[in-house]
Amino acid sequence: MSTSQAFWEALPESARRSVDFLINPLLSIHVTGPLPSLDEIAGLIFTSANALDAYRDLGGAPDKLAIVVGDGTASVAQEFGFDVDVAGGTADKLVSHVLEKGYKGPLMHLRGEVAIGDVAERLTRAGVTTGEAVLYEQRLEHFSETTKEALSQDRAIIAPVFSPRTARQLGAESEGIENMVFAAISNAVAEALPPEMAARTKVAKTPNRSGMVELVTQMITDAVALERHT
C-alpha cells in the first residue's frame, strides 16, 4: 500500500465519504541500494516509510531494533515485524530521543538520497556512532493530465504536504489554483510553500500522521460546511 493510500485510509470514514480522493505523487521513489553491512549494527534508524519499503525490497530483515521518526513510519515497521522505538515526529526530536534513551550504538540511518536533519552526523558528534546508507533516490514529478483536469473544477481542494521538497514542487505545480488550501505537517514544510500561499496553509498540531489526520479531517469538515452554505 502506498503512503498516500495509507494516509487516506487513516482518515475517519465520515471524512472519506465527504470528498473525492486523488493521488498524484510529486516524488517518485526508485530503490537503488545496496544494503550496507549491518553485522555490527545495534539498531536501524528510519526517518521515512519509503526507507523501510526500500530496506524490505533489498532483502533486509526485521532482526534489529528500528528507531523511527513518527507513528506513520512506526506502523510500517511494525507490520514488517520490527521491534520499534518511536521518536517525536521530526529529525531533531529523533536525535534528542536517541541521546535521552542512552543508546550506545553503533546505529545505521537508512535513508533516501535527499534527507534533512543530518541525523547520522549529529549523533556521531554527540557520541553515538552512527553510519548512514542511501537506499533510494527521489525524483520530482509533475501533475498528470488527469490531475490538471480534476483541479480545473470549481471545487475546494485540500492538499496534504509532508516534506519541504514536495511543498516546493507543489507550490510550483499549483501556481494560479486559488481554490487549493494546504495542510502542512510542520512549520518547516509550511515555510517551503510560496509566501503567497501562507494564508491558505494550516499546520498540524503534531508533526506526525496523527496530527495530519486531525488537521485534514477538520479541513474537510470546514470545507463541506462552507459548501453547504454557499
UniProtKB/TrEMBL annotation:
Residues 31-214 form the Tetrapyrrole biosynthesis uroporphyrinogen III synthase domain. Gene3D superfamilies: 3.40.50.10090. InterPro entries: 4pyrrol_syn_uPrphyn_synt_sf, 4pyrrol_synth_uPrphyn_synth. One of its GO terms (biological process) is tetrapyrrole biosynthetic process. It comes from the Bacteria. Coiled coil: none annotated. One of its GO terms (molecular function) is uroporphyrinogen-III synthase activity. It holds the Pfam family HEM4. This is Uroporphyrinogen-III synthase. It comes from Marivita hallyeonensis. The lineage of its organism: Bacteria, Pseudomonadati, Pseudomonadota, Alphaproteobacteria, Rhodobacterales.
